[in-house]
C-alpha cells in the first residue's frame, strides 16, 4: 500500500512534468496560470512524497518537508483560484485582493516553515501500522492550523462557486467541462476533509491534487468540445451551398444536405432518389483509384440546364479499406451563365446581337484559314443615317439598326458571319455560292417598308468584295466592300456594287481631287463655261453655266468626275457659290454692255440645300450685283426635288419671292417626274437628253416628248430640250412646240471669251 502510493505519486509527478512540457510547446490559452498551477501541484506532490519517505528517526527533515507540503497546498489553491478566474472570466480578481491573498499565503507559508522549530501549527508523531508493518509520521494538527484550513477552503470555495455558476449558465455541450472540474475540486476537498477527520495515515487528497492538475492541463490543451465541433460541422454541411451526398462502403446513401436536395429537386425519399440519380456516376467512380475526382457536368432539370461541378471523394481507413464516399455538387449555373453573358458582351454588339468589330475579325480569320471555297465580304450602309438619327431621334435609329440586323441574319446563310462594325455599317462574310444578290437586296429593302420612318426614304447600299486573297487583312477586305458602296453612294438608282480594282484607282483620284480643291478654288482654276441656249426663232437667248477645272498639270477636267466627288465630300456648295457669283457678275457686266436680254442658267446641287441657305445666297447676289433677276435661272435636278420635297419647296418659294425663275433640270430621267410637277411650282422645264438618244423606241420617245411639251405649255411653263445634236431633232422639237434648245448641234460649252466673241460680235 505504502509502496504503491509512493510509486503512484512519482508517476503522477512525471506525468505532470510531461504536461508542463506539452503546455509550453503548444499555443494554449491562459498558459501562465496553467503552468503555475501544475508546477505547484508538482511541488506539492514532491514535498508530500518526500515527507512520507523520511525515516522516523529524522524528525527535523520530516517537520520541514511537512511544512513545505502544507505551504505548497496554500499556493496550489491560490493558483487554482487564479486559473479559475482566468479560465472563466467570471468575477476576475483584481490586483488588491490578489495582493492580500498573496500576503496571507506568504504568512501561512512562513508559519509552516517556522513550525519546524516552534511546532505551533502541527506536531509529528511516530506511529506504527501493524497491518502495513511500517512506522509512519502522524500529523497532529494544532488549533492555529484551523486558520490555514479556513484560508485554503475559502479559496477553494471561490473556484467551486465560479464553476457551479458556469455549470448552470453554459449551454449543454459545455456542461461536461465545468461539471468535471467541479466534481474534481469537490472530490479533492472532500477527500482532504475526510482524511483529516479520519486521522488517515496518508493524505490521499494529494493524488487528487495531481490528477486535478493533469485534467486542467487536458482541458486547456484538448478540451475542444466534441459535440460543439460536431454541431459546427453538421451546420456547415447542412447550410453549405455545395450539395453533398454521403455513401457508406456499400454505396448506400446515408446523408444528403439541403443544397443537394434542392439541386436534384427530390422530395420524399431523398436517399432512394439520390441513389437512382447518382448510381451511374457512382459506378464509374467506384473503381477509380484516385481519392478525389472532379468533373464538369450538365444536368437537365425541369427543362432547365444546370451546370454543376461534381467532386467525388473516397474515405479510407489507415489500411486503405474504403469507409465510404461522398459526392459534392457545386451548382455553377449562375457563374457559367454570368461568364457566358460576359463573353457574349465582349464579343457581340449589344444593340443588334451581331458580332462586334473585334470578334468579327477573328471569326473571319478563323473561317478563311480553313476555307476551301471562295468567300465574299458583303457590307451594307444606310444613306445619310446621321440624318435619320437627327430627324427621328436616336431611338428610332437604334430600332432601324436592330431591324436591319435581324434582316441580315435572316438573309445570311448559316455558314456566314455577320457583324455591326460601327454605326450603320454592317459586314457579312459569306461563301460566294450562298450569296444571293437579289435576295439580299430584297431583304434590305424590306426595312424601307417597315414604317419605322415615314417620309424619309431609307436607301441602302450594299458593297460586295469577292475575296481573292484570303491572307489579306480582314479590314482591307472590309474597306474594299465599303469602296464599292462609296462608288454608288448618293445614287438612288443603284444600291448594290461590286469591288473592282479600278475603284481603288478612282478612290485615289478622288482623294487627289479633294486634296487639291481648296488651292484650285483659291487660284481660280475653276472656270465658268457657257453653252448657248437657242430660242425657236434661232436667236441665242442665254446659256447654261457649266464648270470646268483647268488644272495646271492635268489640263481641262470635266465636271462629270469632280462634281460627284465634291458632292460626296460635302464641298460642292463652295464651288457652286463661286460659279453663281461668276454668273451674277457676268450678267451685271453684260447689262452694262447693253446685253440685257441674255440669261445664264446655273446648276444647284441637292447637297447645296444641306450646307447652304440657298435662298439667302441668291438674295445676297441680287443685292450685290446689278442684273435682271429673271436672267439668272436656277436649275435644280428632278431627283433633287424628290428628295427633300418640303424643305426644297420652301426654298423655292423664297427664291420665287425674290424674283428668280426656277428650272427643272433633267426632267424625265427620274421615276416620278409627272407626280412631281403637280407639287413644284417651276417656270421652266428642261427635258433630259435621254428622249433624244437613238433607241429602238424612237417613235415612243417622240410621243412622250410631244406630250411633255404640250403638257408643260398647258401648265404655263417654258420648255427647253437639252442634248440636241441634229437638225432633225430641232425640226421635230420645233413641231412639238419646244421653246428653246441646247446641245452640240448649236454649240458645245465654251469659255467666256469664246462665247462673247461668238455671240457679241455683231
Ligand atoms: P447637266 O446640268 O445636265 O448639264 C448638261 C450636260 O450635258 C453638260 O455636261 C453638257 O456638256 C452636256 N451636253 C450639252 N449638250 C449636249 C449634247 O448635245 N450631247 C451630249 N451628249 N451632251 C451634251 P458637263 O458640262 O460635263 O456637265 C455634267 C454635269 O455636271 C451637268 O449636267 C451638271 O449636272 C453638273 N455640273 C456642271 N457644272 C456644274 C456646276 O457648276 N454646279 C453643279 N452643281 N453641277 C454642275
Ligand atoms: Ca444643268
Ligand atoms: Ca441637264
Summarize the structure.
By secondary structure, this protein is α/β, with parallel strands linked by helices. Helices cover 55% and strands 19% of the residues.
CA radius of gyration is 56 Å
Low-confidence residue ranges: none
As a percent range, the share of helical residues equals: 40-55%
Total DSSP helices: 27
- The backbone outline, from C-alpha atoms, is rod-shaped
Please give the largest β-sheet. 8 strands, mixed, barrel
Name every ligand kind in the structure. ligand C2E, calcium ion
What strand line-up does the widest sheet have? 13-14-16-17-18-19-20-21
Mean pLDDT: 87
Main structural class? alpha/beta
What percent of residues are in strands? 15-25%
If you had to describe this structure to a student in words, what would you say it looks like?
With 762 residues, the chain is α/β, with parallel strands linked by helices. It is 55% helix and 19% strand. It has 27 helices and 21 strands. The strands form four sheets. Strands 13-14-16-17-18-19-20-21 form an eight-stranded mixed barrel, surrounded by four helices. Strands 4-3-7-6-5 form a five-stranded antiparallel beta sheet, with helices on both faces. A hairpin with a 4-residue loop joins strand 3 and strand 4. Helix 1 packs antiparallel against helix 2 (31-53), helix 14 (394-411) packs antiparallel against helix 15 (437-446) and helix 21 (614-624) packs parallel to helix 23. The protein starts with a helix and ends with a helix. The model has no long low-confidence stretch (mean pLDDT 87). The structure holds ligand C2E and calcium ion (CA) (2 copies). One calcium ion (CA) binds at residues 665-666, 686, 722.
Amino acid at each position: 500500500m505504502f509502496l504503491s502510493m509512493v510509486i503512484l505519486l512519482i508517476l503522477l509527478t512525471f506525468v505532470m512534468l510531461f504536461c508542463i512540457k506539452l503546455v509550453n510547446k503548444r499555443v494554449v490559452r491562459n498558459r501562465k496560470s496553467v503552468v503555475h498551477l501544475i508546477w505547484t501541484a508538482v511541488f506539492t506532490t514532491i514535498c508530500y512524497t518526500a515527507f512520507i519517505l523520511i525515516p522516523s528517526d529524522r524528525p527535523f527533515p520530516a517537520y520541514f518537508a511537512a511544512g513545505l507540503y502544507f505551504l505548497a497546498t496554500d499556493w496550489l489553491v491560490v493558483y487554482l483560484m487564479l486559473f479559475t478566474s482566468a479560465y472563466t472570466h467570471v468575477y476576475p480578481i483584481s490586483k488588491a485582493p490578489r495582493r492580500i491573498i498573496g500576503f496571507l499565503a506568504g504568512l501561512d507559508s512562513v508559519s509552516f516553515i517556522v513550525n519546524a522549530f516552534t511546532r505551533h501549527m502541527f506536531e509529528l508523531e511516530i506511529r506504527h501500522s501493524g497491518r502495513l508493518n511500517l512506522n509512519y509520521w502522524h500529523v497532529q494538527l494544532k488549533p492555529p492550523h484551523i486558520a490555514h484550513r479556513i484560508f485554503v477552503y475559502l479559496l477553494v470555495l471561490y473556484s467551486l462557486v465560479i464553476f457551479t455558476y458556469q455549470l448552470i449558465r453554459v449551454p449543454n455541450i459545455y456542461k461536461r467541462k465545468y461539471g468535471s472540474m467541479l466534481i474534481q475540486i469537490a472530490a479533492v476537498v472532500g477527500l482532504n476533509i475526510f482524511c483529516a477527520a479520519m486521522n488517515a495515515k496518508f493524505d490521499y487528497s494529494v493524488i487528487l491534487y495531481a490528477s486535478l492538475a493533469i485534467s486542467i492541463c487536458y482541458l486547456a490543451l484538448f478540451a475542444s468540445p466534441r459535440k460543439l465541433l460536431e454541431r459546427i460541422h453538421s451546420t456547415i454541411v447542412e447550410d453549405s451551398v455545395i450539395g453533398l451526398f454521403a455513401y457508406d462502403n456499400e454505396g448506400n446513401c446515408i446523408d444528403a444536405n439541403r443544397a443537394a436536395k434542392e439541386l436534384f429537386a427530390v422530395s420524399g425519399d431523398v436517399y432512394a432518389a439520390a441513389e437512382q440519380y447518382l448510381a451511374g456516376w457512382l459506378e464509374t467512380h467506384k473503381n477509380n483509384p484516385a481519392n478525389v475526382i472532379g468533373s464538369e457536368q450538365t444536368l437537365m432539370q425541369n427543362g432547365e440546364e444546370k451546370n454543376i461541378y461534381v467532386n467525388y471523394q473516397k474515405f479510407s481507413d489507415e489500411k486503405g479499406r474504403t469507409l465510404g464516399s461522398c459526392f459534392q455538387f457545386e451548382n455553377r449555373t449562375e457563374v457559367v451563365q454570368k461568364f457566358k453573358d460576359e463573353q457574349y458582351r465582349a464579343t457581340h454588339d449589344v444593340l443588334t446581337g451581331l458580332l462586334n468589330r473585334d470578334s468579327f475579325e477573328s471569326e473571319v480569320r478563323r473561317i478563311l484559314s480553313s476555307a476551301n471555297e471562295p468567300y465574299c465580304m458583303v457590307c451594307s450602309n444606310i444613306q445619310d443615317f446621321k440624318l435619320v438619327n437627327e430627324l427621328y431621334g436616336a431611338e428610332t435609329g437604334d430600332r432601324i439598326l436592330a431591324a436591319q440586323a435581324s434582316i441580315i441574319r435572316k438573309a445570311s446563310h448559316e455558314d456566314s458571319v455577320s457583324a455591326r462594325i460601327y454605326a450603320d455599317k454592317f459586314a457579312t462574310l459569306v461563301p460566294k455560292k450562298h450569296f444571293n444578290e437579289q435576295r439580299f437586296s430584297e431583304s434590305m429593302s424590306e426595312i424601307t417598308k417597315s414604317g419605322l420612318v415615314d417620309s424619309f426614304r431609307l436607301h441602302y447600299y450594299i458593297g460586295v468584295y469577292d475575296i481573292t486573297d484570303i491572307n489579306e487583312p480582314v479590314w482591307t477586305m472590309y474597306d474594299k466592300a465599303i469602296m464599292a458602296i462609296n462608288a454608288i453612294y448618293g445614287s438612288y438608282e443603284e444600291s448594290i456594287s461590286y469591288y473592282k480594282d479600278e475603284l481603288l484607282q478612282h478612290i485615289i483620284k478622288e482623294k487627289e481631287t479633294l486634296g487639291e480643291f481648296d488651292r484650285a478654288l483659291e487660284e481660280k482654276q475653276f472656270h465658268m463655261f457657257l453653252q448657248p441656249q437657242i430660242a425657236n426663232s434661232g436667236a441665242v437667248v442665254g446659256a447654261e453655266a457649266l464648270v470646268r477645272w483647268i488644272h495646271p498639270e492635268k489640263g481641262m477636267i470635266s465636271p462629270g468626275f469632280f462634281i460627284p466627288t465634291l458632292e460626296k465630300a460635302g464641298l460642292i456648295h463652295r464651288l457652286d457659290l463661286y460659279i453663281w457669283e461668276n454668273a451674277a457678275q457676268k450678267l451685271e457686266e453684260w447689262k452694262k454692255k447693253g446685253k440685257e436680254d441674255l440669261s445664264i442658267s446655273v446648276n444647284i446641287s441637292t447637297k447645296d440645300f444641306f450646307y447652304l441657305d440657298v435662298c439667302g445666297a441668291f438674295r445676297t447676289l441680287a443685292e450685290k450685283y446689278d442684273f435682271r433677276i429673271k436672267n439668272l435661272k436656277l436649275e435644280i435636278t428632278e431627283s433633287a426635288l424628290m428628295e427633300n420635297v418640303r424643305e426644297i419647296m420652301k426654298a423655292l418659294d423664297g427664291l420665287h419671292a425674290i424674283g428668280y425663275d426656277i428650272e427643272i433640270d433633267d426632267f424625265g430621267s427620274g421615276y416620278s417626274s409627272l407626280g412631281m410637277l403637280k407639287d413644284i411650282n417651276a417656270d421652266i422645264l428642261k427635258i433630259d437628253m435621254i428622249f433624244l438618244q437613238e433607241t429602238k423606241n424612237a417613235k415612243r420617245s417622240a410621243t412622250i416628248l410631244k406630250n411633255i411639251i404640250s403638257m408643260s405649255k398647258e401648265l404655263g411653263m417654258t420648255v427647253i430640250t437639252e442634248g440636241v445634236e441634229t437638225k432633225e431633232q430641232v425640226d421635230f422639237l420645233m413641231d412639238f412646240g419646244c421653246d428653246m434648245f441646247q446641245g452640240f448641234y448649236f454649240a458645245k460649252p465654251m469659255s467666256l471669251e469664246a462665247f462673247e466673241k461668238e455671240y457679241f460680235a455683231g
